[in-house]
Write a structure and sequence with these properties.
The chain is an alpha/beta fold and 192 residues long. The chain has a domain at 29-114 and 160-185: Rossmann fold, CATH 3.40.50. It contains 8 helices and 5 strands; from the N terminus they run αβααβααβααβαβ. The chain has a 5-stranded parallel β-sheet with strand order 3-2-1-4-5, sandwiched between helices. Helix 8 links the parallel strand 4 (162-165) and strand 5. The protein is globular, with a radius of gyration of 17 Å. It starts with a helix and ends in a 7-residue tail after the last strand.
Length: 192
């Protein structure tokens, strides 16, 4: 049963957040894939799907974790991938080459492994995204991105999964509101 929206609003009192948040040092963030137990499910941020499709692919430690652990798919990430499928111009000569891999990724997702944010997650994510939009001075597009990232984070919390993301800056800020969330961050793989 969803919580009272007022209770969710009280969890993150907007009046308590009045200053711009500074980004933390990397040493204070979770980058060690070895710290994730094999029995813990993982949820993938949209960045993971996209990085897996591009050369050089995912960093080895992240690819190993994704292959080893149960993978849950957040409906928000599914939507972000699907909007790209719809947005690509059918008349552009490179569209087919970009659209097909996205469709393949979406087609391989088992429906039983797709998790949607609850009503509570939507409300809490909206409050947090609003606070960050104000305190960080986010432009319109950044507001939507941080809202989506907040919903993915809270969906992972509800599913008791570790959210894997390359979106270091957003996750750093979001973890201030939900330090109980399990997040694994990574940098884009580099070619050698």
């Amino acid at each position: 049963m969803p919580s009272n929206p007022g209770e969710l609003l009280a969890r993150h009192d907007p009046a308590a957040w009045t200053r711009t948040l500074a980004y933390r040092a990397r040493a204070n963030l979770a980058f060690d894939a070895r710290a994730i137990d094999a029995a813990t499910p993982v949820m993938l941020d949209t960045t993971v799907y996209l990085d897996a499709l591009k050369a050089p692919g995912l960093p080895t430690a992240i690819a190993t974790l994704v292959a080893r652990n149960v993978v849950l798919h957040c409906s928000i990430a599914c939507a972000e991938l699907a909007v790209s499928v719809g947005h690509l111009d059918p008349a552009h000569p490179r569209t087919a080459g970009h659209r097909r891999p996205l469709i393949d990724v979406l087609s391989r997702m088992a429906p039983t492994r797709i998790v949607a944010p609850s009503a509570d997650a939507w409300t809490e994510a909206a409050v947090v995204a609003g606070i960050l939009a104000r305190t960080q001075g986010h432009a319109r597009e950044a507001r939507r991105a941080v809202l989506h990232d907040a919903m993915m984070l809270l969906t992972a919390v509800e599913a008791e999964a570790v959210l894997i993301s390359r979106n270091i800056r957003h996750m750093d800020l979001l973890l201030r509101f939900r330090p109980d969330a399990q997040v694994l961050l990574y940098d884009r793989a580099v070619t050698t």
